[in-house]
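Below is a filled-in request sheet from our internal design queue. Each sheet records the structural input a requester submitted and the sequence that came back. We keep these sheets so that new team members can see what a complete request looks like end to end.

REQUESTER: design group, bay 2
PRIORITY: normal
MODE: inverse folding
CHAIN LENGTH: 328
BACKBONE (tokenized):
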């Protein structure tokens, strides 16, 4: 379980939380809003751990009984609302929140409830929660985390302090992966760049054999497509089409490759290249292809990404894309 000091980025939210803890003026309801992998869970856990810590500081001590209970997931005053189905229903909110909140804290001045993926509450469940957060006991604090706040009722939103999470700079994520996770430079660079500023996603990519295989497959394609026979091109079509659930990630990696080639062609600089470990291949393709051809490939990739979202025949779209990449 992370402490505030372990969280990369989100300084504004951390400052807000720590300042509220210092002044003992915590809101009764907070809404952490950000994409999956942005750090919502880490912030919720760090906040709960710090508020419940027996030392009473703005960083959890990590040594007291309360901290150890929170870290082990056994603190009686930190309630994680459990969702067993696709949605979180009114029954769960009534049993795990509305009824439970009437019972005073067991060992702390506060009682904290965390509802992850709160946008999956049904409308009835949200209204049941609303009744609780409108007039909560003094000791109750509610943490809600969402990827899409527009799915919450406006009445619920109005009762919460909104804390939007923001993307973290690629270089900071890369440094974190290398220094804290021991990830090699080239992989840290790719994972950080591909993460969209989401630290959790970058860690997942860096530690994922799937991501490493995706990168390997994409590099083989973009480096050797000019020399491939039609049969080999079709083999790649079938390879990527057979992994449709991760097709968007493959397309994004191919797109990042050609953007690197464009960048190098325009600047001849290595700084900023996502595939800096493949400089020789990047330089070779930059020399072979015109700006117009490279821009055409980038535009074609963007179109296929849109078609994938529209659920068109992905294999046909992919076949046309690879043939275009080979011909230009």
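RETURNED SEQUENCE:
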């Amino acid at each position: 379980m992370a402490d505030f000091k372990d969280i990369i980025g989100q300084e504004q939210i951390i400052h807000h939380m720590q300042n509220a803890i210092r002044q003992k003026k915590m809101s009764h309801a907070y809404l952490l809003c950000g994409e999956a992998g942005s750090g919502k869970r880490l912030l919720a856990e760090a906040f709960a751990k710090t508020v419940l810590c027996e030392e009473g500081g703005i960083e959890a001590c990590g040594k007291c009984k309360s901290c150890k209970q929170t870290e082990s997931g056994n603190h009686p005053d930190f309630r994680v609302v459990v969702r067993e189905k696709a949605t979180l229903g009114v029954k769960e909110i009534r049993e795990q929140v509305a009824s439970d909140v009437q019972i005073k804290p067991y060992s702390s001045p506060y009682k904290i409830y965390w509802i992850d993926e709160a946008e999956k509450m049904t409308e009835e469940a949200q209204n049941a929660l609303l009744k609780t957060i409108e007039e909560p006991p003094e000791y109750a604090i509610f943490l809600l985390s969402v990827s899409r706040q527009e799915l919450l009722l406006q009445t619920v939103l109005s009762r919460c302090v909104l804390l939007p999470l923001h993307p973290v700079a690629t270089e900071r994520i890369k440094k974190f992966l290398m220094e804290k996770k021991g990830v090699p430079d080239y992989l840290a660079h790719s994972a950080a760049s591909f993460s969209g500023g989401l630290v959790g996603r970058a860690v997942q990519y860096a530690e994922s054999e799937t991501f490493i295989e995706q990168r390997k497959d994409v590099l083989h394609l973009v480096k050797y497509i000019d020399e491939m026979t039609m049969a080999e091109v079709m083999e790649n079509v079938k390879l990527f089409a057979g992994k449709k659930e991760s097709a968007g990630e493959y397309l994004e990696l191919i797109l990042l490759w050609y953007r690197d080639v464009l960048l190098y062609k325009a600047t001849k600089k290595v700084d900023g290249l996502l595939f800096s470990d493949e400089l020789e291949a990047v330089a070779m393709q930059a020399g072979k292809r015109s700006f117009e051809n490279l821009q055409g490939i980038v535009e074609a990739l963007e179109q296929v990404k849109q078609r994938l979202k529209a659920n068109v025949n992905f294999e046909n779209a992919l076949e046309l894309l690879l043939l275009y990449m080979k011909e230009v």
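SHEET NOTES:
- The first strand starts at residue 29 and ends at 33.
- Residues 247-267 form the longest helix (21 residues).
FILED BY: M.R.
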